[in-house]
Design a protein that fits this description.
- The chain has 178 residues and is an all-alpha fold.
- It is built from seven helices and no strands.
- Helix 1 crosses helix 6.
Length: 178
């Protein structure tokens, strides 16, 4: 929800286009030197858009927890049916970070957490969160690593999350209706 809201803020500010192929935002050489190089070699790559990723219609396989060596791959053509994919969100994070030259943490601080005054929310765990976060007992999954930054895990408090949900559901002061 936070990444989707971030993208919609960027769309509202005319800094990002939901339907522009993501390949147009990142040079092929950058993708070729990343974990996404196999995607760029697939003809379906040119049909991958933020809208398709946000609606889980990217065609990308879901990652396997605990298998960071697994390469992101297409298992369907983008836009062809619903298939949950955290890999899609990871690739969207990669594109956003490359396009804007800022980390996911920095982008969400600028466009989401800062404007909503969510002072105790972040994608990576700042040191001032130490001793105030309940740790997971499942250590086998890379998703549970407190030092990682991923678009599917963020650290927050109930009051900060309530601010976010209230804004997204009821107020939407930063998004246009379109």
């Amino acid at each position: 929800a936070v990444v989707a809201y971030l993208v919609m803020r960027l769309v509202t500010d005319e800094q990002f286009d939901l339907d522009r192929p993501l390949s147009k935002y990142v040079s092929k050489s950058i993708v070729e030197n990343s974990r996404y190089k196999e995607l760029a070699r697939d003809r379906r790559y040119s049909h991958l858009t933020a809208r398709r990723i946000l609606s889980h219609r990217s065609g990308l396989a879901d990652s396997l927890p605990g298998h960071p060596e697994r390469k992101p791959i297409f298992i369907a053509s983008p836009g062809r049916g619903f298939l949950y994919s955290d890999e899609g969100y990871s690739f969207l994070q990669f594109v956003l970070e490359q396009k804007f030259g800022k980390s996911l943490d920095e982008l969400t601080q600028i466009y989401v957490f800062g404007p909503l005054e969510m002072k105790r929310t972040n994608f990576s765990r700042p040191t001032h969160f130490n001793g105030q976060v309940m740790a997971s007992t499942n250590t086998s999954s890379s998703r549970d690593r407190s030092d990682s930054t991923s678009p599917w895990i963020f650290k927050t408090t109930s009051s900060d999350f309530t601010k976010f949900m209230w804004t997204v559901r009821l107020e939407n002061p930063s998004l246009s209706h379109e």
